[in-house]
Design goal:
alpha/beta; six-stranded mixed sheet; 17 strands; 32% helix; Rossmann fold; 339 residues; binds adenosine-5'-triphosphate; elongated
C-alpha cells in the first residue's frame, strides 16, 4: 500500500448533548473518501466553521470518527498504540504553549519521545535527528534561544522541526501559517512543499491563505459551507467553480482568471483609463475600491497618466483635476461622490 493516509466512509463531527441531555453526534463532514499521498503537499481549505480542524483532528486520532476509518499505510489508525502511531504520524497544532525554560533545541528534542526508551534518554542518534530537523526548517540558529522568546514565525518553524524530529511518514498541520506575515506564510508553505517533495513525506496542512495554497499545493481538499468536500489539483477546483462557490461572499469575489479575490463594490458609475501597463492595474484597483466600473469610453470619468507624472481626472461635465498621487486621485473621486 503506497498511499500514506487514506479515509474511507469517514464522517467527522462532535459529540454534543440535546436540550434534554441526550448525547448526539453533530456531523460536520460526512462520507469522505480521501487519499493524501507521499511526496505531495495536500492543503485543506474552507471558510470558517467548514470543518477543517475537525477533519484534521480526526485524521490524527485526536477525535474519534463518527463513522468510517482512517488508515496510515493500510493500517487502521484506531488499532495502533499511541507510541506506534507517533512514529508514523506527527501533528502540529496552532496553540502556543511551551514548557517554561526550554530552549528551542530542547523543545524539538521532545519530538524524539516515541523513539527513546522508558527514561527518555537521548542517544547520539536522537541528538543528530534533532539537529537535522532544525537544519531542515532553517532554524539551526535558534537552537539555544528560549522557546518562549521566539517570534510567531520562528515558533512555527521550531514546531515543524519538532514534528520532523519524530521522523514520521505523515505530518498534519492545523493552520501553520496563522499569525505569520506574508513573507513568512510563503516561506513556511514553500518549506512544507519541500518536505513533501524532497523528503517524500505526506504533508496535509489547513490554511486560510487561499491564494498561496492555490499556487503551492499539489492537491487541495476544499470544504464548503454545505458540508461537502471536493478534492483535486488547484486548477481542477478553480476550473469547476468550486473555489468561487466556497468563498464568494457579498463583499468578495474569486476571479478564476487570476486565481485571486477581488472586492465586490456596488457600481456608482463608469470610468476609462489611459495609462501604461505598470499604472493601469493600480488605477483599476483604485477605481474598483471607489465603486467605478472600468469600461471602454464614453464614461462618466476618464483618467489619464500625464507626461509630468501626475494623474489627470476628467469628468463628463468637463471638469478636470490634476492629482500628483493615487491618494489625491482617490480623494478627488470621493469628493465627486459627495457632491
Ligand atoms: N468541541 C466542539 N463541540 C461541538 N461543535 C464543535 C466543536 N468544535 C467545533 N465545533 C463545530 O464544528 C464545526 C466545524 O468547526 P471547525 O473548528 O472544524 O471548523 P474550521 O473550518 O476549522 O473553522 P475555522 O476556519 O473557523 O478555524 C463548527 O460548526 C463548529 O461550531
Amino acid at each position: 500500500m503506497t498511499e500514506a493516509l487514506t479515509a474511507h466512509g469517514l464522517s467527522v463531527g462532535h459529540r454534543t448533548r440535546t436540550a434534554w441531555g441526550r448525547a448526539v453526534h453533530r456531523v460536520v463532514l460526512a462520507d469522505l473518501r480521501l487519499t493524501a499521498r507521499p511526496a505531495e503537499l495536500t492543503v485543506l481549505l474552507g471558510p470558517n466553521g467548514s470543518g477543517k480542524s475537525t477533519l484534521l483532528r480526526t485524521l490524527c486520532g485526536l477525535l474519534p470518527p463518527v463513522a468510517g476509518t482512517v488508515r496510515i499505510a493500510g493500517a487502521d489508525l484506531a488499532a495502533q498504540s499511541p507510541a506506534a502511531l507517533s512514529r508514523r504520524l506527527a501533528v502540529v497544532l496552532t496553540d502556543r504553549t511551551a514548557p517554561a525554560l526550554l530552549s528551542a533545541r530542547e523543545l524539538v528534542a521532545l519530538g524524539r519521545h516515541p523513539h527513546t526508551g522508558f527514561l527518555g534518554r537521548l542517544r547520539p542518534a536522537d541528538l543528530a535527528a534533532v539537529d537535522r530537523a532544525l537544519r531542515a526548517v532553517d532554524a539551526g540558529h535558534l537552537a539555544h534561544r528560549p522557546a518562549t522568546e521566539l517570534s510567531d514565525g520562528e515558533w512555527q518553524r521550531v514546531l515543524i522541526a519538532r514534528a520532523l524530529a519524530q521522523e514520521p511518514r505523515v505530518i498534519l498541520l492545523d493552520e501553520p501559517t496563522a499569525f505569520l506575515d506574508a513573507p513568512s506564510r510563503a516561506a513556511v508553505t514553500v518549506l512544507l512543499r519541500e518536505l513533501a517533495h524532497e523528503h517524500g513525506l505526506t504533508v496535509v496542512a489547513s490554511t486560510h491563505d487561499v491564494e498561496l495554497a492555490l499556487r503551492l499545493a499539489d492537491v487541495v481538499w476544499l470544504a464548503d459551507r454545505e458540508g461537502r468536500l471536493r478534492t483535486g489539483a488547484p486548477e481542477d477546483l478553480i476550473h469547476s467553480g468550486a473555489v468561487a462557490a466556497a468563498f464568494d461572499t457579498e463583499h468578495l469575489a474569486f476571479d478564476p482568471g487570476t486565481a485571486s479575490f477581488a472586492l465586490r463594490r456596488p457600481s456608482r458609475g463608469t470610468a476609462s483609463v489611459d495609462a501604461p501597463p505598470p499604472l493601469r492595474p493600480l488605477l483599476e484597483r483604485l477605481l474598483a475600491r471607489e465603486g467605478l466600473t472600468v469600461a471602454p469610453g464614453p464614461t462618466d470619468i476618464h483618467i489619464t497618466a500625464a507626461d509630468d507624472d501626475t494623474l489627470l481626472l476628467s469628468r463628463k461635465d468637463g471638469g478636470t483635476v490634476r492629482a500628483p498621487t493615487f491618494e489625491d486621485l482617490a480623494r478627488a473621486l470621493r469628493t465627486d461622490k459627495e457632491e
